[in-house]
Structure prediction request, 294 residues.
Amino acid sequence: REDLKGLYSALLVPYNEDGSVNEEGLRKIIRHVIDKMELDGLYVGGSTGENFLLDKETKKQIFDIAKDETGDAVKLIAQVGSPNVYEAIELGQYATELGYDAISAVTPFYYKFSFKEVKQYYKDITDAVDNDLIVYSIPVLTGVEIGLDDFGELFELDRVVGVKFTAADFFLLERLRKKFPEHLIFSGFDEMLLPTVVNKVDGAIGSTYNANGPRSKQIFELAKEGKVEEALEIQNVTNDFISAVLENGLYPTLKYILQQETGSEERFYARKPMAQSTDAQLERAQEIYEKYIK
Ligand code: SI3
Prediction:
């Protein structure tokens, strides 16, 4: 799936104060990512979209809006994973019918599933959904670690075409790349984009690319051309930005910046139980916005 390579926005979703989707705001973010950030695709239904706080109908609504606003302009990957595998299958079929280019599924979490159970989960999804699948591995949030040999078993499943690797384990990343040259590897931590590109990932999916797209694209392109020194300079500024964002709160800061960038009057709320931004966070977000993005 050469066509899936590239830089993706882990799509941020703005909510209204009552927890419903702010559709106008979401459409504006999508336009911003496509037209101004000029990214290659959208990863819809991920952590950044607060997906794991949503009911099934709202997840479908977001898939609908993203497809409707995007058309065929960029690639679309639908994250459908959930410990409820029946829901994952239904969402995978739904996104596939809508025309999503691929699906992705987080490793099942909460219960301590054995690897045999994790593998069965991916087999159940790929057997039932007529689309290619990217494993979403994010041990920092799920607690699920997958080793080299286990990745090999998942990659043997029909239609498992790669992994979104959101981890800082560069030894495992290097081993994966060497052993599975035909599978897609997407980098998941934006602050580590450069070293993952040096390790020859095929693309990256991240939250900060929604706002810091141009620098991220430069890092990606320069590193691919072997211009590591130049890429590092941009990664350094990028990481000043990401450090400030993480210190102030990832969601409040990105929501504030995207509200400003899209010229939206309505505040971009978080979905409960995620806390709403405080005045102090909003003030700091404005400073970060002015210093790094505006
Ligand atoms: O599913 C998604 O929304 C993502 O792709 C998440 C993405 O990997 C982000 N990870 C987390 C834990 O939020 C990163 O983009 C992350 O926000 C960024 O690297 C800052 O740490």
